[in-house]
Amino acid sequence: MLLFDEIRRRNVHRVVLAYVAGAWLTLQVAETLLPAFGFEPEALRVVLIALAIGLVPALILSWKFEWTPAGLVRDANVPTAERGKSSRTLDRAITLFLVIAVAYFAVDKFILSGPSLSGQKSIAVLPLRDLGDEASQTFLGSGIAVELSNLLATIPELLVIGSATTETFAAGSVDVGAAARKMDVSHVLTGSVRRVDDRVRVAVRLVDAYEDVQLWSEVYERKLDDIFAIQDDIAARVVGQLRLQLSDTPPTSEQIIPEAYELYLRGHHLSHVVRTPEAFIEAVGLLERAVELEPAYVPALWSRARSIGNRDGDSDPVTREAADKRIRALVDRMVELAPDSSYSNGWLWYLAQKDGEDLQTQLNYLERAVAGGNDANVHIQQIFAGRALARLGRTDEAVALLEYVLKRDPANGIGAYNIAFILRQEGRHREAAEWLENLLDWHEPSASMLWSLGVAWLVAGEPEKALSYFDPGASLAGSDGAALPTNKMGRALALHSLGRREQFAAALEAIKADPTVDVESLARIHAWSGQNDIAFEYLERMVQQRGPGSAASVDTDLYEPIKSDPRWQHFLERNGVADEDLSDIEFNPPLPPEVVTKVERMRAERARAKERS
């Protein structure tokens, strides 16, 4: 008992409490500031070890010395009148630290851990930076991020940003706070990967986007064979940190042979991210080997089929026929293994279109593809479902569904082009142009993107803005930094709308003199400029050259000025283009609750507006 009495008299217990509270506060500050200065997650571990070691000298000092108004004094030399004053000082310090702790937890629980700016808990999993000497493991960092996104996307409560958007942050260091604001997410998972032989080092940190506060970090140093355990542990820790409610156990990875998984990640990265002719060739070989090792791994079957299509889609007829047979064999295998999955039904829908099957059969497959998706990959099926809904005249559902997808994957070009197409069909040209313009926030401009933007602003009644995209000059540059070329046809269209008749006439003559310009392009220019007779002459020449089926592809906005001419409808009907009777088509893909609510609100607002009018 004498020892405990002495500990109490010398305030050792108070020093321990004050030291632990102060160390905790130091760790919170370090956890916030170290990442801002570029330190890796293990730097926090060093701070923790140093603080733990520091407790020993603190105990020794508290036993030998006492804090007095004169400073540190050896315990034996403290006057009797001064004893006990240090107890009150330490009590105040402990109380202060406890108040700070309570305030921190209150802010963390009720403010910082709230939903994103858009009202829902959300996360973006950025590609892990490759820290290898030769940067040869980019596919691994990208692949792990995609797989983690797919795992987390199975949680209904959580909004997960799609890979088309997160891949835009793959190059170089990333300002996490700026990236989070751009994507409008509440949390970001980021980190690095380094591989040496058969060992892999994965360092990750979960950041709260509001204050760039690091919520959790971990470094995994294991054999590559343990990559699935690493992914599952990261997903489980994210679920815990975000306080997500699960109806079941945390999501886990499908485990396959590690060698096959590496081959799959390599091939998938080449086919979906690199996307060059050489990459498609290499991807097919890698994915073939992955399927040989794991013949029942459906994602690899799906990715291999897509890579074959990308590699051979523009080849000679014999090569295309052989590729088609290989793809169908892979699809048959997918259907056998996972008949209800998004993977198999997405391919069945594609093949049904290619084979000219009836629309109802096509949409049955597409409906099942949407229903069978439970990860971020379902976005592409939802985009196609939106296009189908618009074709059936269900525009409200189509637009709401595509807005839902683009909220989760704002850099998704397929989604942006499809919502723009639907809005233009509805006469909402300015909205369509704005959706396309959003892509410039995510991607370097290309000639095809600028053409689409120019046409969108042209039909929206903004020819000056359209001209800036048709003839960008030095204002916009491509991915290689070079100025983008002028689109001569678009420039001519914009010049006409601006009333610059002489310049338009000169531009049109130059286009006509170009032997590579096809007759349908000339028909569009003359249609837009109100030269109906010449436009119909070129359309007839087009049908003579390409056949009657070509008439189905000319119903674009640029023909709008001649659609009131009786010859337009006659031209379409004579070439077999008739309005579709889709009244008997049934298509009911599962729509997210957010989409259903938005559609109901849109219809209610329209009904109220009709009543007021």
Report on the architecture of this protein.
Mean pLDDT is 84; it is low at 109-118. The longest helix has 28 residues, at 85-112. The chain is an alpha/beta fold and 613 residues long. The strands form 2 sheets. Strands 3, 4, 5, 6, 7 and 8 form a 6-stranded mixed sheet that branches. Strands 1-2 form a two-stranded antiparallel sheet. It is elongated and about 105 Å long. Helices cover 60% and strands 8% of the residues. A hairpin with a 2-residue loop joins strand 1 (65-68) and strand 2.
Comma- or semicolon-separated keywords:
613 residues; alpha/beta; two-stranded antiparallel sheet; 8% strand
Fold blueprint:
Layout: H1 2-9, H2 12-36, H3 42-64, E1 65-68, E2 71-74, H4 85-112, E3 122-125, E4 129-130, H5 138-152, E5 159-160, H6 163-166, H7 176-183, E6 187-196, E7 199-208, E8 213-223, H8 227-241, H9 258-274, H10 277-293, H11 298-312, H12 317-337, H13 342-354, H14 359-371, H15 378-391, H16 395-408, H17 413-425, H18 429-438, H19 447-459, H20 463-470, H21 488-497, H22 501-512, H23 519-528, H24 532-546, H25 566-574, H26 593-612
Parallel strand pairs: 3-5, 3-6, 4-6
Antiparallel strand pairs: 1-2, 6-7, 7-8
Helix pairs in contact: 2-3, 2-4, 5-8, 5-9, 9-10, 9-11, 10-11, 11-12, 12-13, 13-14, 14-15, 15-16, 15-17, 16-17, 16-26, 17-18, 18-19, 19-20, 19-21, 20-21, 21-22, 23-24
